[in-house]
């Protein structure tokens, strides 16, 4: 009898959890953002082609569609065929929502790629007022006219304090190069961190993305007025490239390291993913290459402060 009750209880528990699993949206626990630079550029090109029509084409959904058709891998030869097939169906009058397959995995990929790319492309104007355009409106983190160099270093091992993986993207450059906010949002961290040195953290307005800019310049790391709680726009100068960090003592330069920006992007779907072992960080190499086609220009004033002189304003 006891045994039967136990089996019944287990079955009920299983049924209830299965039921909740079925009715609730899948919780995203990790995101492998694998989109290639080619896929990002081509999907943007078609976003501009279909913009204003009724196909329902969406930049991030198109990237997710390519991912879905190739097991979340990207290859130019396969993606070319998949994308041209999608475009043909849309041109023949089918709608993106009807074409996108329905499955948990399809929903998961769509959620992941939307979380990273959902705001990257949209309406903007060149400066204040003027004609509304549509396209890439998030920018490269280093202002135009300053050299940089980078390679895919996501997941490489690091060993200060304890062994861990490199959950960001390093962009080599010169000390003092203006660093601009890739996307707007609210400054949630601004100060010294024993790993990142002088660093700034910015949370996007929809709270899904946390941008992390680290190893900023010794002595004068931040743009004037930068502080926790400040609202910044995409393209605002937030600080200056440097080489600080990996020290419990403040304002110390890294030894045996050349100046670089550590650029990180964390996705936050639920509060327990904000800090700790559940953090989700994205490989930014291809995305950074994609963003390099749009860099804001800045000019230096007498006090050495850089100010943005041209940028796309979100419409
Ligand atoms: Zn780094």
Could you walk me through the main structural features you see in this protein, from its secondary elements to its overall organization?
The strands form 5 sheets. Strands 5, 7, 8, 9, 10, 12 and 13 form a 7-stranded antiparallel sheet that branches. The protein has a 3-stranded antiparallel sheet with strand order 2-1-16. The radius of gyration is 22 Å and the shape is globular. The chain starts with a helix and ends with a strand. The protein is 28% helix and 23% strand. Residues 10-25 have low confidence and may be disordered. The chain is built from 7 helices and 16 strands. Zinc ion is lined by residues 166, 168, 170, 262.
Order of helix and strand elements from N to C terminus = HHHHHHEEEEEEEEEEEEEHEEE
The end-to-end span amounts to 68 Å
Strand fraction band? 15-25%
Biggest sheet features: 7 strands, antiparallel
Bound molecules: zinc ion
Number of helices: 7
Structural class: alpha+beta
Helix content: 25-40%
- Say how many strands there are: 16
Rounded Rg? 22 Å
Q: Could you name the key traits of this structure?
A:
single chain; 315 residues; alpha+beta; three-stranded antiparallel beta sheet; 28% helix; globular; binds zinc ion
């Amino acid at each position: 009898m006891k045994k039967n009750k136990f089996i019944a209880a287990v079955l009920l528990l299983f049924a209830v959890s299965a039921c909740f699993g079925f009715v609730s949206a899948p919780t995203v626990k990790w995101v492998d953002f694998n989109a290639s630079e080619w896929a990002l550029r081509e999907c943007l090109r078609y976003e501009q082609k279909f913009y204003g029509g009724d196909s329902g084409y969406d930049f991030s959904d198109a990237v997710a569609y390519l991912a879905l058709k190739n097991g979340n891998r990207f290859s130019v030869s396969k993606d070319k065929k998949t994308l041209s097939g999608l475009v043909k169906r849309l041109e023949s009058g089918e709608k993106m929502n009807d074409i996108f397959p329905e499955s948990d995995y399809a929903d998961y990929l769509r959620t992941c790629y939307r979380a990273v790319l959902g705001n990257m492309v949209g309406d903007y104007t060149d400066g204040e007022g003027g004609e509304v355009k549509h396209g890439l409106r998030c920018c490269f983190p280093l202002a135009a006219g300053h050299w940089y160099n980078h390679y895919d270093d996501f997941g490489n091992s690091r060993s200060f304090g304890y062994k861990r993986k490199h959950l960001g993207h390093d962009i080599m450059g010169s000390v003092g190069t203006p660093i601009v906010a890739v996307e707007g949002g609210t400054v949630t961290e601004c100060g010294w961190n024993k790993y990142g040195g002088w660093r700034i953290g910015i949370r996007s307005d929809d709270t899904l993305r946390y941008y992390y800019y680290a190893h900023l310049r010794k002595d004068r790391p931040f743009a004037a007025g930068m502080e926790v709680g400040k609202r910044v726009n995409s393209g605002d100068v937030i600080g200056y490239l440097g080489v600080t960090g990996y020290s419990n003592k403040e304002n110390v330069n890294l030894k045996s390291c050349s100046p670089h920006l550590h650029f990180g992007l964390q996705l936050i779907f639920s509060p327990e993913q904000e800090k700790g072992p559940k953090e989700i960080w994205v490989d930014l190499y291809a995305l950074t290459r994609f963003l390099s086609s749009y860099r804001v220009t800045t000019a230096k004033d007498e006090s050495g402060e850089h100010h943005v002189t041209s940028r796309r304003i979100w419409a």
